[in-house]
Specification:
single chain, alpha/beta, six-stranded mixed β-sheet, four-stranded mixed β-sheet, 10 strands, elongated
Protein backbone atom coordinates (compact mmCIF):
# COMPACT_ATOMS: atom_id res chain seq x y z
CA UNK A 1 0.00 0.00 0.00
CA UNK A 2 1.21 3.46 -0.90
CA UNK A 3 0.80 6.12 1.78
CA UNK A 4 0.57 9.75 0.66
CA UNK A 5 1.07 12.32 3.40
CA UNK A 6 0.41 16.06 3.13
CA UNK A 7 3.22 17.86 1.33
CA UNK A 8 2.64 21.05 3.37
CA UNK A 9 2.06 21.79 7.02
CA UNK A 10 -1.61 21.07 7.69
CA UNK A 11 -3.95 23.23 9.76
CA UNK A 12 -3.99 20.59 12.49
CA UNK A 13 -0.20 20.64 12.67
CA UNK A 14 -0.23 24.45 12.88
CA UNK A 15 -2.73 24.30 15.75
CA UNK A 16 -0.60 21.66 17.48
CA UNK A 17 2.49 23.86 17.33
CA UNK A 18 0.53 26.87 18.61
CA UNK A 19 -1.04 24.89 21.44
CA UNK A 20 2.32 23.40 22.42
CA UNK A 21 3.93 26.85 22.54
CA UNK A 22 1.07 28.26 24.62
CA UNK A 23 1.26 25.30 27.00
CA UNK A 24 4.96 25.84 27.63
CA UNK A 25 4.82 29.65 27.85
CA UNK A 26 1.70 29.94 30.02
CA UNK A 27 2.75 27.01 32.20
CA UNK A 28 6.21 28.54 32.70
CA UNK A 29 4.88 31.94 33.68
CA UNK A 30 2.29 30.32 35.94
CA UNK A 31 4.98 28.43 37.84
CA UNK A 32 7.04 31.61 38.17
CA UNK A 33 4.10 33.48 39.71
CA UNK A 34 3.39 30.58 42.07
CA UNK A 35 7.00 30.49 43.24
CA UNK A 36 7.47 34.25 43.65
CA UNK A 37 6.15 34.42 47.22
CA UNK A 38 8.47 31.54 48.20
CA UNK A 39 11.67 32.86 46.65
CA UNK A 40 11.92 36.04 48.70
CA UNK A 41 12.03 38.23 45.60
CA UNK A 42 8.86 40.12 46.57
CA UNK A 43 9.17 43.10 48.95
CA UNK A 44 8.47 42.03 52.52
CA UNK A 45 5.92 44.80 52.91
CA UNK A 46 3.78 43.25 50.18
CA UNK A 47 4.11 39.77 51.61
CA UNK A 48 3.18 40.90 55.10
CA UNK A 49 0.23 42.83 53.70
CA UNK A 50 -1.19 39.58 52.32
CA UNK A 51 -1.97 40.80 48.82
CA UNK A 52 1.63 40.26 47.83
CA UNK A 53 1.09 36.54 48.36
CA UNK A 54 -2.43 36.00 47.00
CA UNK A 55 -2.22 38.06 43.80
CA UNK A 56 0.79 36.17 42.34
CA UNK A 57 -0.69 32.89 43.58
CA UNK A 58 -4.04 33.50 41.89
CA UNK A 59 -2.36 34.66 38.67
CA UNK A 60 -0.15 31.59 38.74
CA UNK A 61 -3.09 29.23 39.27
CA UNK A 62 -5.02 30.88 36.44
CA UNK A 63 -2.10 30.60 34.01
CA UNK A 64 -1.44 26.98 34.98
CA UNK A 65 -5.14 26.18 34.47
CA UNK A 66 -5.15 27.68 30.96
CA UNK A 67 -1.87 25.91 30.17
CA UNK A 68 -3.44 22.62 31.27
CA UNK A 69 -6.34 23.15 28.87
CA UNK A 70 -3.98 23.77 25.94
CA UNK A 71 -1.96 20.77 27.11
CA UNK A 72 -5.04 18.57 26.74
CA UNK A 73 -5.37 19.75 23.13
CA UNK A 74 -1.72 18.80 22.56
CA UNK A 75 -2.36 15.39 24.11
CA UNK A 76 -5.42 14.81 21.90
CA UNK A 77 -3.39 15.63 18.78
CA UNK A 78 -0.62 13.21 19.79
CA UNK A 79 -3.17 10.47 20.48
CA UNK A 80 -4.79 11.06 17.08
CA UNK A 81 -1.37 10.87 15.43
CA UNK A 82 -0.68 7.55 17.16
CA UNK A 83 -3.97 6.22 15.83
CA UNK A 84 -3.07 7.36 12.32
CA UNK A 85 0.31 5.65 12.45
CA UNK A 86 -1.16 2.44 13.79
CA UNK A 87 -3.84 2.43 11.07
CA UNK A 88 -1.20 2.88 8.36
CA UNK A 89 0.73 -0.07 9.78
CA UNK A 90 -2.38 -2.25 9.96
CA UNK A 91 -3.39 -1.50 6.37
CA UNK A 92 0.13 -1.93 5.00
CA UNK A 93 0.30 -5.47 6.34
CA UNK A 94 -2.28 -6.89 3.92
CA UNK A 95 -2.98 -4.37 1.14
CA UNK A 96 -0.98 -4.42 -2.10
CA UNK A 97 0.43 -1.41 -3.96
CA UNK A 98 -2.74 -1.03 -6.00
CA UNK A 99 -4.19 0.60 -2.87
CA UNK A 100 -3.34 4.23 -2.13
CA UNK A 101 -3.96 5.80 1.27
CA UNK A 102 -4.23 9.59 1.61
CA UNK A 103 -3.53 10.62 5.19
CA UNK A 104 -4.89 13.92 6.57
CA UNK A 105 -6.37 14.81 3.22
CA UNK A 106 -7.70 18.27 2.39
CA UNK A 107 -9.71 18.12 -0.82
CA UNK A 108 -8.34 20.66 -3.31
CA UNK A 109 -10.71 23.57 -3.79
CA UNK A 110 -12.91 22.93 -0.76
CA UNK A 111 -12.65 23.50 2.98
CA UNK A 112 -16.14 22.69 4.17
CA UNK A 113 -15.12 19.60 6.16
CA UNK A 114 -11.47 20.50 6.73
CA UNK A 115 -8.98 17.68 6.89
CA UNK A 116 -10.22 14.13 6.39
CA UNK A 117 -8.35 11.60 8.54
CA UNK A 118 -7.88 9.15 5.69
CA UNK A 119 -9.11 8.14 2.23
CA UNK A 120 -8.23 4.66 0.96
CA UNK A 121 -8.42 4.37 -2.84
CA UNK A 122 -8.32 1.07 -4.65
CA UNK A 123 -10.33 -1.43 -6.70
CA UNK A 124 -13.17 -1.15 -4.17
CA UNK A 125 -13.52 2.61 -4.76
CA UNK A 126 -12.95 5.07 -1.90
CA UNK A 127 -13.08 4.27 1.80
CA UNK A 128 -13.39 7.50 3.78
CA UNK A 129 -12.06 6.92 7.30
CA UNK A 130 -12.70 8.94 10.43
CA UNK A 131 -10.47 7.90 13.33
CA UNK A 132 -11.92 8.39 16.81
CA UNK A 133 -8.83 9.13 18.95
CA UNK A 134 -10.28 8.86 22.47
CA UNK A 135 -9.75 5.97 24.84
CA UNK A 136 -12.56 4.22 26.67
CA UNK A 137 -15.79 2.35 26.04
CA UNK A 138 -18.40 3.72 23.63
CA UNK A 139 -22.01 3.11 22.74
CA UNK A 140 -23.78 4.14 19.56
CA UNK A 141 -27.56 4.45 19.39
CA UNK A 142 -28.20 5.41 15.80
CA UNK A 143 -25.80 8.32 15.32
CA UNK A 144 -25.93 9.44 18.94
CA UNK A 145 -22.75 8.44 20.73
CA UNK A 146 -22.05 7.91 24.42
CA UNK A 147 -18.80 7.45 26.29
CA UNK A 148 -18.77 5.47 29.52
CA UNK A 149 -17.17 6.99 32.60
CA UNK A 150 -13.92 5.37 33.58
CA UNK A 151 -14.42 2.49 35.98
CA UNK A 152 -18.20 2.40 35.50
CA UNK A 153 -20.07 -0.70 34.46
CA UNK A 154 -21.12 -0.88 30.84
CA UNK A 155 -24.90 -0.69 31.30
CA UNK A 156 -27.72 1.46 30.01
CA UNK A 157 -27.75 3.46 33.24
CA UNK A 158 -27.47 7.13 32.12
CA UNK A 159 -25.31 7.87 35.15
CA UNK A 160 -22.59 5.56 33.83
CA UNK A 161 -22.09 7.39 30.54
CA UNK A 162 -22.00 10.82 28.97
CA UNK A 163 -23.40 11.85 25.60
CA UNK A 164 -20.68 12.99 23.22
CA UNK A 165 -20.97 16.45 21.69
CA UNK A 166 -19.77 15.27 18.27
CA UNK A 167 -20.99 12.14 16.53
CA UNK A 168 -18.11 10.18 14.91
CA UNK A 169 -20.54 8.55 12.45
CA UNK A 170 -21.88 11.91 11.27
CA UNK A 171 -18.31 13.20 10.92
CA UNK A 172 -17.47 10.23 8.68
CA UNK A 173 -20.69 10.61 6.68
CA UNK A 174 -20.10 14.32 6.06
CA UNK A 175 -16.58 13.57 4.87
CA UNK A 176 -17.88 10.81 2.57
CA UNK A 177 -20.47 13.14 1.05
CA UNK A 178 -17.81 15.77 0.49
CA UNK A 179 -15.59 13.26 -1.35
CA UNK A 180 -18.51 12.16 -3.52
CA UNK A 181 -19.45 15.78 -4.33
CA UNK A 182 -15.81 16.61 -5.10
CA UNK A 183 -15.65 13.77 -7.63
CA UNK A 184 -18.94 14.81 -9.23
CA UNK A 185 -18.10 18.52 -9.60
CA UNK A 186 -14.78 17.73 -11.26
CA UNK A 187 -16.43 15.27 -13.65
CA UNK A 188 -14.27 12.41 -12.42
CA UNK A 189 -15.55 8.83 -12.65
CA UNK A 190 -18.09 8.12 -9.94
CA UNK A 191 -16.87 5.28 -7.75
CA UNK A 192 -18.33 3.73 -4.59
CA UNK A 193 -17.62 6.00 -1.60
CA UNK A 194 -18.06 4.45 1.84
CA UNK A 195 -17.60 6.26 5.16
CA UNK A 196 -16.27 4.24 8.10
CA UNK A 197 -15.49 5.10 11.73
CA UNK A 198 -12.34 3.50 13.16
CA UNK A 199 -11.84 3.46 16.93
CA UNK A 200 -8.15 4.20 17.33
CA UNK A 201 -7.90 3.32 21.03
CA UNK A 202 -11.41 2.65 22.30
CA UNK A 203 -13.89 -0.22 22.35
CA UNK A 204 -17.48 -0.28 21.13
CA UNK A 205 -19.79 -1.91 23.66
CA UNK A 206 -23.22 -1.45 22.10
CA UNK A 207 -23.93 -0.63 18.47
CA UNK A 208 -27.51 0.03 17.38
CA UNK A 209 -28.11 0.84 13.71
CA UNK A 210 -25.43 3.48 13.01
CA UNK A 211 -25.57 5.17 9.60
CA UNK A 212 -22.12 3.86 8.66
CA UNK A 213 -19.90 0.98 9.79
CA UNK A 214 -17.97 1.30 13.06
CA UNK A 215 -14.80 -0.79 13.38
CA UNK A 216 -12.28 -1.23 16.16
CA UNK A 217 -8.65 -0.90 15.10
CA UNK A 218 -7.82 -4.56 15.70
CA UNK A 219 -10.57 -5.72 13.31
CA UNK A 220 -9.94 -3.34 10.38
CA UNK A 221 -8.22 -6.09 8.36
CA UNK A 222 -11.15 -8.48 8.78
CA UNK A 223 -13.63 -5.73 7.88
CA UNK A 224 -11.85 -4.76 4.65
CA UNK A 225 -11.22 -8.33 3.57
CA UNK A 226 -14.82 -9.42 4.13
CA UNK A 227 -16.59 -6.28 2.89
CA UNK A 228 -14.36 -4.77 0.20
CA UNK A 229 -11.94 -7.29 -1.24
CA UNK A 230 -14.78 -9.60 -2.20
CA UNK A 231 -16.59 -6.96 -4.32
CA UNK A 232 -18.35 -8.05 -7.49
CA UNK A 233 -16.77 -6.91 -10.78
CA UNK A 234 -19.55 -4.37 -11.42
CA UNK A 235 -18.47 -2.19 -8.49
CA UNK A 236 -14.71 -2.41 -8.90
CA UNK A 237 -12.89 0.77 -9.99
CA UNK A 238 -10.35 0.34 -12.78
CA UNK A 239 -6.70 1.15 -12.32
CA UNK A 240 -7.00 4.08 -14.72
CA UNK A 241 -9.86 5.52 -12.70
CA UNK A 242 -7.85 5.39 -9.48
CA UNK A 243 -4.85 7.01 -11.18
CA UNK A 244 -7.06 9.84 -12.45
CA UNK A 245 -8.38 10.58 -8.98
CA UNK A 246 -4.96 10.36 -7.37
CA UNK A 247 -3.54 12.78 -9.95
CA UNK A 248 -6.30 15.34 -9.26
CA UNK A 249 -5.92 15.00 -5.51
CA UNK A 250 -2.21 15.71 -5.78
CA UNK A 251 -2.54 18.59 -8.25
Amino acid sequence: MQVIRPSIVTNQQKLFRRNLALTLVLGGFGLIFLLLPLTGLLPQSLVQDGWGFWIPALLGLGLVGVATWFGMLVWNFLEASKGQERLCQELSQFLSNEFIYFRNLTLPGTRSVGEIDGVLLGPHGALVLHIEPNHGDFASEGDTWYRYHKGKEVTDNPKNRRRMDDSPTWTAIRAGREVKAWLSVRELPLIPVRPVVVLGHGKIRTLKRPSCPVVEMWSIQTFIQSNLLQESPQTIASGGTVEQIVHRLQS
